[in-house]
Amino acid sequence: MKERIKECLQTKWLGKNIIYEERIDSTNLLAKKIGEENVMSGTVVVAEQQTAGRGRRGRAWVSPEGNCYFSVLLRPQIHVEHASRLTLVAALALAEAIMGVSSIQVQIKWPNDIVVNGRKLCGILTESSLDGNGLKYVVIGVGINVNQQEFDIAISDIATSIFAENGQLTDCACLIAAFLNCFECYFEQFVMTEDLLGLQERYNELLVNCNREVRILDVEEWSGVALGINEKGELLVRNHMGEVKTVLAGEISVRGIYGYV
Length: 261
Ligand code: BTN
Known about the structure:
Strand order of the largest sheet: 1-2-3-7-6-5-4
Mean pLDDT: 93
Radius of gyration: 18 Å
Distance between the termini: 33 Å
Shape: globular
Low-confidence stretches: none
Largest sheet: 7 strands, mixed
Strand content: 25-35%
Bound molecules: biotin
């Protein structure tokens, strides 16, 4: 796996150091551990299987063999408050990589899920650590359902895999390299301004919520029409009074009016 990723890699610095484990508890946990040490920015932890894969909101990420599980360790010199924007940068790179490698058309469910035909294909878990000088490191963990053919009954309505969509087996190493190639470029663009101005248009093109009715699960629930993201990565939503409100990722949950998307 490690050698195959390297064969397909066209990056300047990202993924030059790869830590490969056949089986691990969670690639994010190892990436955070080495983040506390002096390990270089751009290091990628990859595993074939996870025994304790972690999702957002404290959920588990079931991680059988055949899919992609990896975490990228970054030490960006950006303002702490801008770090969560990296999740949107990663989502965009992930969407491009999957479309490039598999030729299936994917969309982004704000802020960072990749979906196909209303079902979730990938998840991203971004975790960061601070010290007295600001951001110490950021770990971007990515799980992609690649060659999985069956899903647990509990998630079979809302999850999909590349195989389930196109009936073909995909090389995980090649897909991870495609992500790293694209993400390095988008990351460099992002850190120059620390906003999404340069990536916003493409992100909004792929945004599944765009021009759709969404429900915002805030302290009080409200709904409106999503208009796209702004340069801060916030979702712009027009409520029924015609006012445009901004919704900040991580603070509240956004659901489509019909089901998962
Ligand atoms: C989500 O809940 O949507 C985020 C899922 C993130 C899963 C990936 S798999 C690789 C990395 N290691 C983990 O334990 N989680 C992330």
